[in-house]
Amino acid sequence: MAGKAKSEKLPAPLSLRERNRLRTRRELLDAALEVFAESGYGLATVENIAARAGASKVTLYTYFPQGREELFRELYDEVNQEMIEKVSAIYDEDGDHRARILAVTEALMEIGQRPLIGRLYSIDDPALDVALNPVRGHASRVCADLMASDLAAARKSGAVKTKASTMAIAELLVGAMRTALSDVVQEQVAPADMLAAMDALVSDL
């Protein structure tokens, strides 16, 4: 076993060119995040994003051939993946259904309080439908499936009394969380108030 471990090769370090490409790509994404958060999707332009990154349009299209559509989709999916990881970790831990739902709500509210990310993740623009079709709803689907399974187990144990569809309940809760995210981003409601409201919703299931 020791000999086998010694024979395993570590991944080759990235070349300077590869590191530079990754840095440029990240700089374009970060610039796009700022522009989208400030202007929304409809008013954001490739020219503005490239200028914010200190790059040319040619450079931007080299990295993101579909332009702002691809940039927005990738940024949105980064948040999706972060949320999926957080929610999966929550449901991997011991706890009751109520505590888990509140933890998921809190995780989403934390994202909503980030000035740039929160605004990006809460943008609702019909022009985004095509851009986001491949990634929209991924995190919501994971949340709803995990909640529904957890609620079903809680009902089986007697902790949940309602006979309503656990999937329907989960879908409604996720929808409420998404609305809460938008309200928190717009500073219409405090995150603590949203958590208290969610607690009230799930306490009598």
Automatic annotation (TrEMBL):
Residues 22-82 form the HTH tetR-type domain. Keywords: DNA-binding, Transcription, Transcription regulation. One of its GO terms (molecular function) is DNA-binding transcription factor activity. Residues 45-64 bind DNA. InterPro entries: Homeodomain-like_sf (IPR009057), HTH-type_TetR-like_transc_reg (IPR050109), HTH_TetR (IPR001647). This is Helix-turn-helix transcriptional regulator.
